[in-house]
Amino acid sequence: MAAPPSLSCLLEEPRRLPPPPPPQDGMDTEAEWRDWAELPRDVLLAVLSRLDHIEILMGPDMVCSPWRRAGTDEPELWRRIDMRFHYADGFYLNSRKLLQMVRAAMRRSAGRCEAFWGGSYVTERILSLVGNAAPSLKSLRLIECRDIVDSAFKAVITKFPMLEELEISNCMHRFPETLEVIGDACPLLKRFRLSQRSFYSEIVDDSTAMAIASMSELRSLQLTANSLTNSGLELILNGCPLLESLDIRSCYHICMDNEMQAKCARIKTLRHPEDSMDDYDLSFNYTIPRPCWSAEPIEYSMGCQSPY
């Protein structure tokens, strides 16, 4: 398989397509040959809007000048930047190239970027770049990021006062200090997703719940494999009166007894700790293992006995 074009497509003016070949006898020239450079701009933008943004940076820029201008000079195309599920040090992408791509995408957004969704390659440098270039960001989704630490994230999150959606899924580090400031730094936050790779049965920790309880505008919350207890969940329910959707799958320290069911009665969409993970959209990378409880009967989750 030939390698994709290099990042020279971000810097060099592409060549125009060669002229059409002379028509042959019996050939319908219009049907056999199209000058794609003459594609109407609105149609071209509709086509580009259906591509991954890394695909735009690696391909259409090389077609011709009109295609390059459409991909470069239209900030609307870069208002929502989706660069998830791309990995550094792979077949043709490395961290340096991905940094260049994010920088190019932010430049093309002309300060109007409202959503940035990134994958494992996102570093503190990239996160800081987004923080400086997207003051009106409303959605930030980070998946499987290995290189972002709590102190760096805490400094950047304060730059997004307009944030309405935040996802931190399957990241290597935890962000206790960041979580503590989100409530004040992002007062408009409505959707929060904090997913973890594993549930640790030996840990009981309501600190995350205490931080989430300060996010008073939340409508949707997903906590996967978190170590919060019933006390922590009650803090969230009291601190987030507008909450409509709650997903606490694989949070096995939660006991959904009659009392807790009654407290959650106002939640329109509720996923229980024992509910199936089959429709979990990140499960292709791993399966959250069920906890290995002691062989002795133990009390957990505010009084529920382990079913294992």
From TrEMBL:
Q: Which GO terms describe its molecular function?
A: SCF ubiquitin ligase complex binding
Q: Which residues form the F-box domain?
A: 33-81
Q: Where is this region: Disordered?
A: 1-29
Cited PROSITE patterns? FBOX
Q: Which Pfam families match?
A: F-box-like
Tell me which domain of life the UniProt entry assigns to the organism this sequence originates from: Eukaryota
PANTHER family in the record: F-BOX DOMAIN CONTAINING PROTEIN, EXPRESSED, F-BOX DOMAIN-CONTAINING PROTEIN
What's the protein called, per UniProt? F-box domain-containing protein
Organism, by scientific name, is: Triticum aestivum (Wheat)
